[in-house]
Every structure is written in structure tokens, then in C-alpha cells.
Design a protein that fits this description.
single chain; 625 residues; alpha+beta; Serine Threonine Protein Phosphatase 5, Tetratricopeptide repeat; four-stranded mixed β-sheet; two-stranded antiparallel ribbon; 35% helix; 8% strand; globular
Amino acid sequence: MQVLKKSIWKVMGATGVFLLLLTSCNDDFLNTEPLDSISSEATWADGPLSQAFIYNVYSFLGYGGFEEQGLSSITDEAMFTHAGRNIRPFNEGTEDPTNTAWMSATYEWGQMYLAIRQANVAIDRLPTATFEDTELRDRLLGEAHFLRAYYYHQLARFYGGVPLIDRPYGLDEDYSVARSSWAETVAFIVADLDMAATLLNGKPETPGRASMLSAQALKSRILLYDASDLHQSDMVSGIFSGFSNLDLVASSGDRTAKWRAARDAAKVVVDAGVGYKYGLSAPVGPEEGKENFIAISMGGGSAVADASAAVELIFQRTATPLYTVEDNWPLGGLNHGINNGPNGYNNWAGNTPIQQMVDDYEMMDGSTFDWDNPDHASAPYVDRDPRFYASVMYDGAGWKPRPSAAAGLDPMDQIQTGFYDDGNGGTVNGVDTRSSSIENWNGTRTAYYHRKFIDPNPALPDNQSSAQVVPWPFIRYTEAVLNFVEASIELGEEDAARQWLNQIRFRAGMPAISDTGDALRERYRNERRVELAYEEHRYHDARRWLIAPETLGRIIQTMDIRATLRPGQTAHVPYRYDPAVYDYSYTVVENTENETRSWDNKMYFRPITRDEINRNSLLVQNPLY
């Protein structure tokens, strides 16, 4: 059997379903050749074929948050720019089982059960596989358990307790399975992760593949969710009044024990010591803090980023432009910059930061940004948390060299999202506004652009012919640290919580905090918000803390920026940002032109579609739908 590089497998497994492998990585473990249909017995008698089967199970991961339309845009992180897309039913509270809003394939009910079915086949067949490499067999079996747990955890955090199917069903079996309780679902996921950690212990760690540490880290996440407000029966009984199946979304029991379990699981990862630039006794400088965070968001995937940042990634989705199937729009892994970058660079401004997100970045001295402070209001982008500059493009921020058509309008390579006095009674429209002379149909509606995860390499101008290669962080070390901090706070172990929270802040260039009690909890929550921004955590965090009505449900705020010439000054032609020449005014605007957000408590969980209910008469719908 010939093996050629940079191809994909076609494997016919025990399910009799054609399996198209989409997973990619920089390592040769994906380098295989298309084959004709292969029998089930041949698959499990051959190590490489069995491995190819597992790679297909990975393919259901997709690109995580690297999609044209991001999960951030149904949170108070971002707005989706393009009107008319199927996101409004969720954001406006009108979603129901017959009219579901956009759902990513990375958590959609049917897709997850397809993935789980493939994992079940592997878990069923690998113990009796006849190929001789037992180390490989154990590794593949561990990966199968991890992936099944990952897909069930995706279902659980969007839908609550779900039908737990732990074996491949035959064609003539009854597929009607009732939902398990929330507690049973969590226990099932934890058991799979414990099995995965055991089987993967000592196995090589390969970027893009599961490891013992990724199993431990995912365990810390699901146990943190289990301990959170959203999943406590006494906390949500009033919210879901009249719902007779509360055990599907919450449980009772010793909550302190739940927090301890979450803390202990996270501590295993924290103690593994794979963190990037931890152990600091004082903050790094602001510029180093910014570069640290850029390096983390690049995951070692940029030519201008610190490659050592890749150790921060515990479980990632890697990508390579060698696979043309992955280079097609709208698959976002390679086209994240195109999908989200400024329209003045011929990008599409898809998911743009909103003002509430920008305002939650602290000042460099650790104080809260405040529009009622005249110094803050007159220069809102000065002396902010270095992570702000690494995550958000704002008016006047430096960026890459412009495409040739825009170079004459902006020789300084600065983001232009405002409107500027031209010195002759007229206005210069910023080239990155929706009134741009470059492209006026796809600019930001918020005055900001996404920077995090967009490659800053100036040789990569983010157009359709130059795809970036940046990994998506399904799980990173700092998340596990934050999980440990949260559980420690809830257990009253504040010294340990502050110690690790300060380590995260020091790496970013931010000063130590000394808060206690409720103030420490609120400081932690904001720290988690800015550290994990746009990484698909805010949607779940706001819900599990039961703060969604006042966060996710807020009317979007955006920014209007105007610049007038100062007395005696002459306008720059072409325009460039210069506070010595222009007076800048910043006006926060409530923006409902694209969507009018509101919150309904049914939105704590996504609805199971009517089609799924019709297929399985034992399914119980989520509360309030």
C-alpha cells in the first residue's frame, strides 16, 4: 500500500459510510493517499488504516471559532456586520424549534451525533484490533474517548443533558433514546476523559492531537460548568418556572464538592507547568505584554510571532494551505483575516468588536476605564491594557501596508474608522469606514476591527490569495489557570486565586490586584473576559454565571469618531492620525441598525429543532420553548 504525502484518506469503516478526512497538521501523521473502499475488517487489522479512521473523527472539529460568522457575535464581544444573516433570531430572542438561528457545525446536534457515532465505532473496534502496534492502538483508543467526550461536552454546554449513546447502532435498531440528566451527562464525559488520560499517559504530544493533558484540561472545563450557577437546581428553578424536567439542565447536591472537583482537575494542568512566560514576580513592560499576547494568539503560527508561544496550546486546530479543500471560502481557518479584517484592506469586516468589549479593558494602572473621566473620554485608546492593542484595531492604530489601491490614501498604514476635517469645509471619510472610497459595503459598523488571530506579518496582506496559517485554541493553558482561579475563589481560597490571576496579568504587563470577596470575583470575571476574548468562552461564561440578561442582552454600543482641525493648523493631505493637528471627539452610540438585541430566559439553552423532536419521540424540549 503506497503512502504519499499531503493527500487525504478515503476509508470505508464499519459504518459503511464514506469518510472524508479534513484534518490537517504540520506533521506527517496526516500524510496519506486516497484509497478505494476498504472493508471494516481490513481497517482494524491495519495500524495506518485505523489511524486514518480516527483522523476522520477529528475532522468534525472544524476550525473552531475560525468561521465567517463567529460565536462572539451572539455575545457582548462583537457584532456581525452583514445584515440579513441568520443570527438575529437568537440575538433578538425570537428563536424557536422551527426557526433556529445560525448554528455552527462544530456544535450542531446532528453533526455532533455523526461525530459521536464514528467515535463509538472506534471505541467498539479498537480493543479487538488485530494490528500489532499496541502503543498505537492505545493511543488511538485514548483519542477516540477524548473526542467522544469533546463532542458530548459541546452538546452539553449548548443544550444541557443529552441522549448518551455509547455504542454504534445497527441499521434495524430503535434510535429513540431519551435525554440523560445533566448530572449523568457530566459523569459520562468525565469518565471518557479519565479513560483518555489513562490511555494517553506517556504518549507523544503532537500538535492537533489529543494528549493526557488535553483530557485533564477539558475535564476541568466541564467540572467548572457543573459547579456554576446555571447548572444548580436551586439557582434556576425560578428562571425556568414550570419546567418539569429541571434535571435535564441542572442538578442538586454538594456544591462545595463540585467546586473542589473543578479546582483539583484544573490544578493537575496548572502543575504540569506548560505555561508560556509564567513565574514572573512583577509585570513585564507594556510593549512586551502586548507582544506576549500577540504571540499567544498566533500560537507560533506567524513568521513574526514568538514560536515558543505554541506551548500555550494544549489542544488546537492546525491548518496548512497545502490542502485546497480547506482553502475555499468560507472555511475560516485560513481566511480569518479576510473574513474579519478592515475593508480598507479589501477584507470583509465580519465580526467587529463592540464598544462594551472595548470599555472593559482596564487602564494600564489597573483602574476601570470611565467615560465620565475627562482624561479617559478625550483619549480612550491611550494607556490601556496591552491586550487591548493586541486584540482590537481602533482609529489610529498601526497595521500592515495598504493594498496598492489604498496606499495613496493612507501612506502611514493606520486604521481609519473616523471622519476627519479636510481643512476646506469638507470631510475625509476614513478608508476603513462604511463610507470608504475603497469599499463602502462591508466596513465596520462599530468603528473597530478584530485583530486577535489575524496574522500581523506585513508580507501577508489578508487578501484572497494569501491565506494565513494560525491554529485555533480549543484549549489553552491559561484557560485551565483561570478555571483554577475561579474554583479557588468560590472555595474561599483567595490567596491562591490572586497568585495565579496576577501571573496572568504580569505576563500581559498589567499590575497586581489585591481585591477580596465579591470584588475579587468581579475582577476575575473581567480578567477572563479580556484574556479569552473571541475564543468562544464569553457566550458560555455569561450564561453559566446567570449574567446574560445584562451582558449578552444589551443593546449594542458603537463609536462615532470625528476630527476637527485645531486653530492655526493645516490638514494633512493625505490624512493621518495626529492629535497635535486635530481635536478628536468620541461619541458612544446605541446601534440598532443591524439588530436590536434583547434577552429571553429561554436563550440560556439552544432549542432542539423540530426535525430532531420528530425523529425521536422521547426527546424533551429545553425550557421555555
